[in-house]
Each structure stands twice: as structure tokens, then as C-alpha cells.
Amino acid sequence: MASKVRLYVDQPLGKGQTVLLERDQAHYLFGVMRLAVGTVLSLFNGRDGEWDVEVAEAGKRGGALTCLAQTRPLQMPPDLWLCFAPIKKARTDFIVEKAAEMGAARILPVLTDFTNSERVRVDRLQAHAVEAAEQCGGTYVPEVAEPVKLDRLLADWPAGRQLMFCDEALVGAGQVLRDAGPGPWAILIGPEGGFSEAERKRLRAQPFAHPVSLGPRILRADTAAVAALTLWQQALGDW
Ligand code: SAM
């Protein structure tokens, strides 16, 4: 019997491979979704694509699944990072979830002068990215990086990567992106308090940075993240 259940596991997937379940996964599959031995469900691990697997053992504290066949190859997103200043917890969760759904390859919390929530639980944000991938059918899960100060991020900036610097002080994004062209990119979204003048000056001095506007109204940071991801994907991405 086939089920629509789709689960992320951090274990290798391959023909005949056995996947041993952790307690919480067993609880979800056999306690909540009440899957029985012989049921077929989908697994992905962010590396080996999506696989049909069959329940071989079902228990309260564990279980085992056997890989039958790959149903979809790994589909990598474009080489796009979303860098954002953490805001209130629920809205930061929203930004991570939308970044995963909308095709970011990496998610970097950035601490700027006016960032108001320094404490970032990377493990919780990573779980949100996994849940978003499970829900949207993605076979790739973006990594949520440890928070980094803006100065450090710019000092270590990788050669060849462009930056869509969403500056609430500026003009239209589409043409800027098209002019700069495809390749590795990153989007930068500031905190509720915006960028400081010192940051704005530092960012504009970077040869790889392209300051863009997201329209005439000031958007909330979570709205801005979704808007910037949409603009980038439409101009240069895989939409
Ligand atoms: N406190 C700032 C102000 O009133 O100017 C608003 C900051 S906004 C809440 C958070 C971030 O979203 C900004 O730092 C910027 O990265 C992005 N953002 C919001 N609206 C934007 C716009 N119209 N153009 C470009 N970026 C925008």
C-alpha cells in the first residue's frame, strides 16, 4: 500500500539500503500516521534524491525502512544565499521557511548594527528548513549557517559571488539583476531598524554589491525576503 508520507532522514539512501528510524521518526510514522509493515512512503536526505521505501519493521521506539527505488533525482537549487538580519522569532522562522520553499541554497543569519534579536537557535531554524523541504517536495535542504557579523561576512566574501543588497533607501531591482547577470549570488536583507549609515557606506563600497530597491514602500524584513527571492528567481533563477 502506498502512502503520501514524505520524510527527511539524515542517512544514505540507495537500492536495498536499510534506514533505521529514530524514536521521533518512528512515533510520527507508526504512532501518528499509523503506517503498517509493507506500506510504501517517500524519503529524501538532501543528497541522494527521493526514494520509495517500504516499512520493514514498525515499533514504538524505532523501526526500519528498505529503499526500493529512486523516484526523483536530487534537484539542486540555484547557487543563491539568503543573508538576513534575524528579527522576532516567528518572523525569522517564516523567512527561513520561505527561503527553503523559494529555492535558496544557503541561509545565513547576519548580525547588523540595528539587529534586535541576537539569539538565533540554528538547530530550530534548520528544522524549519527541513519541514519546508518535506512540505514543498524539495529534494535539497538548504543549510542554515551560524550567525555572522556583517563585517565578518563582507571580509570573508567569496570571490565571484554577487550581492543583491536590499537597501530600503534605493531604486528598482530587475534591471540591476539582469545587468549583473547569472552566477553565484546572495541576497541581503536588513533588520527591523534597517541598515546603519556606516553599513550602507561599507556595503556600497563593495565591488560585488548591487544596492536595489524593493519598491516605494518600506516592507517588513520577512516581506522583503520573499520579495527579493521572487525578483531574483524571476530574473536569474530556476523559475
Ligand atoms: N527601519 C527601516 C526604515 O524605516 O527605513 C526599514 C527596514 S525594513 C523593515 C528591513 C529590511 O528590509 C531593510 O533593511 C531592507 O533590507 C529591506 N527592505 C524593506 N523595504 C525595502 C525597500 N522598499 N527597498 C529595498 N529594501 C527594502
Layout of secondary structure:
Blueprint: E1 2-8, E2 18-21, H1 23-32, E3 40-44, E4 50-58, E5 63-72, E6 80-84, H2 89-101, E7 106-111, H3 122-136, E8 143-144, E9 148-149, H4 150-155, E10 162-166, H5 174-180, E11 185-189, H6 197-204, E12 209-212, H7 221-236
Helix pairs in contact: 2-3, 2-7
S-adenosylmethionine is lined by residues 166-168, 189-190, 192-195, 213-215, 218-221, 224.
Compact description:
With 239 residues, the protein is of the alpha/beta class.
Task: Please explain how this structure is put together.
- It is a single chain.
- Strand 10 (162-166), helix 5 (174-180) and strand 11 form a beta-alpha-beta unit.
- The strands form two sheets. Strands 6, 7, 8, 9, 10, 11 and 12 form a seven-stranded parallel beta sheet that branches.
- This protein folds into two domains: 2-72, Ribosomal Protein L25, Chain P, CATH 2.40.240; 80-236, 3-Layer(aba) Sandwich (Alpha/beta knot), CATH 3.40.1280.10.
- The protein is an alpha/beta fold.
- Helix content is 31%, strand content 27%.
- The structure holds S-adenosylmethionine (SAM).
- S-adenosylmethionine (SAM) is lined by residues 166-168, 189-190, 192-195, 213-215, 218-221, 224.
